[in-house]
Specification:
Helix content of chain A: 10-25%
Number of helices of chain A: 4
Oligomer: heterodimer
Bound molecules: FE2/S2 (inorganic) cluster
Helix content of chain B: 10-25%
CATH architecture of the largest domain in chain A: 3-Layer(aba) Sandwich
CATH superfamily of the largest domain in chain A: Nucleotide-binding domain of ferredoxin-NADP reductase (FNR) module
Distance between the termini of chain B: 16 Å
CATH architecture of the largest domain in chain B: 3-Layer(aba) Sandwich
Order of helices and strands of chain B: EEEEEHEEEHEHEHEHEEEHEHEE
Number of helices of chain B: 7
Radius of gyration of chain A: 18 Å
Largest sheet of chain A: 5 strands, parallel
Number of strands of chain A: 10
Structural class of chain B: alpha/beta
Number of domains of chain B: 3
Shape of chain B: globular
Structural class of chain A: alpha/beta
Chain lengths: ~210, ~325
């Protein structure tokens, strides 16, 4: 009953260095550290001087093992400026400040769960970054942010096809319709026609 | 676009604004308002001469809020096949012309955080209309305008009056050139650059922006190539089954049209891609003059933009 094939569902590709950029800004969360390290290694091989104009903002994920070490690895890989954060809001605040000071020629790389990418993209959009300035690789949980079209509350970390809205308590069907502006998938009342009648609830976004 | 969609206008004002540029005001013969347009749009002006028809693109320079008359600036080209000379010499106040609806291939980015506009000579015209949209001051902008000398600085009074210190002038004869490096090396994120002027200037701006890491989506340029003069050649239109002679001073597109075959077009200047035509057979060489096909496509010789490009050799067959 998921509405699939909707074009707004974002598609991501493995991160690659864009050597045409002058400055490189990288954002990673949790297991997203691995793709960033891969890009940084590539960069050292093909355009080592770019590392001097590369910054990494990283959010270690305490639940996953081994990723805390990424922050250290970025530094040993030669990145000029690495900052680790304790939460998404802090990282995004810093990101916004950096964008407001950045120059044309900046490339953005984002790696992490889709919800994290979505929040970063939303800010990038405010600064008029276009597709040819942004690369994003999805990794980690597929959990979605779901926007309730009835009460406008956003429910975080949704793993199931049907979820109870944190705002209005309605059962929401999670659609593939994605809003870049809201950085969330749309949730619509699942039992509007026959109250109480719900399709089976399954974990689908793992 | 075809002639059924043209609007008949009357020339209601002509002013010689520089030794080479004339400013025309065109009002609809039927009265009322002309179609709405946005800054950066151009129109095609159809010039009926006794022996042939010219259709040239000109940017609208009047304010998008002024729809009782359109204004264009026409530079007399030294090596004109007749279009600009016709406008300069034959068109008088009261003359009637046909124009096509405005089309915008050079629009300002709607969500840009800053605009940098770079004009060379007659290339100032699309910016005059765009600036009208920037007056509310919500988005910062700057205009860099380069001309040969003071007497060639078309529309400068108008610009100064409205834009004040946002205008930076560069006079060739005073040895002043636009500092492209400085201009493009340190612009804030979300800036868009727009350039309209001679081919060399456009190339330089694009190259410099790219060197500083600007992505293509933030670089905008407009240049209508006039169809260059070349050798005469023959072309066979496979679907229409007609043979067409293309004289040295007529474009391939004009010759095809004169034979009664319609080809879609928007810009007639090698930018929009609308006139893209498949080459079915070729014994000789294509002379590509457009800015639309990639170098690889040009080398393949499988397609041609007839508004500006030509051929040399024995045989050319087009899918028309
Ligand atoms: S008409 Fe625009 S490229 Fe030929």
């Amino acid at each position: 009953m998921l509405v699939t094939g909707i074009k707004s569902k974002p598609v991501y590709a493995p991160l690659q260095v864009d050597t045409r950029g002058r400055y490189h800004l990288m954002l990673g969360m949790g297991v997203g550290g691995a793709p960033l390290l891969r890009v940084i290694t590539d960069m050292r091989a093909i355009a080592a001087q770019s590392l001097l104009s590369t910054r990494v903002l990283f959010l270690p994920d305490s639940a996953a093992t081994g990723v805390a070490a990424h922050a250290v690895q970025f530094e040993t890989a030669g990145v000029a400026d690495v900052q680790a954060f304790s939460g998404t809001p802090q990282l995004l605040d810093r990101f916004r400040t950096l964008l407001s000071q950045s120059l044309m020629g900046t490339r953005l790389y984002v790696a992490g769960p889709e919800s994290f990418i979505g929040l970063a993209m939303k800010i990038a959009l405010e600064f008029n970054l276009n597709k040819d300035e942004i690369r994003a690789e999805e990794c980690g949980t597929l959990a979605r942010r779901v926007y309730c079209i009835h009460c406008r509350a956003t429910t975080e970390n949704v793993r199931t096809n049907i979820v109870r809205c944190v705002g209005c308590d309605r059962w929401l069907l999670v659609r593939d319709h994605y809003s870049r502006r809201l950085a969330a998938y749309m949730g619509v009342m699942a039992d509007a026609e026959a109250p109480g009648e719900l399709p089976p609830i399954k974990e689908v976004f793992l | 676009m075809n002639d059924a969609q043209t609007i008949t206008v009357q020339v209601v004002g002509i002013e010689q604004v520089t030794p080479l540029i004339k400013h025309f005001k065109l009002a609809p013969v039927a009265g009322g308002s002309l179609p709405v347009f946005s800054g950066g749009s151009h129109i095609i002006v159809v010039m009926q001469r006794t022996d042939r028809v010219h259709k040239n693109p000109y940017s609208l320079l009047s304010s998008p809020s002024q729809l009782d008359a359109y204004e264009i600036g026409v530079r007399r080209m030294e090596e004109s096949r007749g279009g600009s000379h016709f406008m300069h010499d034959a068109v008088k106040v009261g003359s009637r012309l046909e124009i096509a609806h405005p089309v915008n291939l050079f629009a300002l980015d709607k969500i840009a955080r800053k605009h940098v506009l770079i004009a060379g000579g007659i290339g100032i015209t699309p910016f005059l209309a765009q600036l009208e949209d920037l007056h509310d001051g919500s988005v910062p902008y700057e205009l860099h305008y380069s001309v040969r000398s003071a007497e060639h600085a078309a529309f400068l009074e108008r610009l100064r009056r409205r834009e004040g210190d946002k205008i930076h002038m560069y006079y060739d004869d005073a040895g002043l050139t636009i500092p492209y490096q400085e201009l493009l090396a340190a612009q804030p994120l979300g800036t868009h650059v727009y350039v309209c002027g001679p081919a060399g200037m456009i190339k330089h701006v694009i190259g410099t922006a790219q060197t500083w890491g600007w992505p293509d989506s933030h670089i905008h340029w407009e240049q209508f190539s006039a169809p260059p003069v070349g050798d005469a050649f023959e072309v066979f239109l496979a679907r229409s089954k007609v043979s067409v002679h293309v004289p040295p001073d007529q474009s391939l597109l004009e010759s095809i049209e004169a034979a009664g075959v319609e080809v879609p077009y928007l810009c007639r200047g090698g930018v929009c891609g609308f006139c893209h035509t498949k080459v079915l057979e070729l014994d000789g060489e294509l002379v590509h003059n457009d800015h639309f096909l990639s170098e690889a496509e040009k080398a393949k010789g499988k397609s041609i933009m007839p508004c500006v490009s030509r051929a040399q050799g024995k045989r050319l067959v087009l899918d028309l």
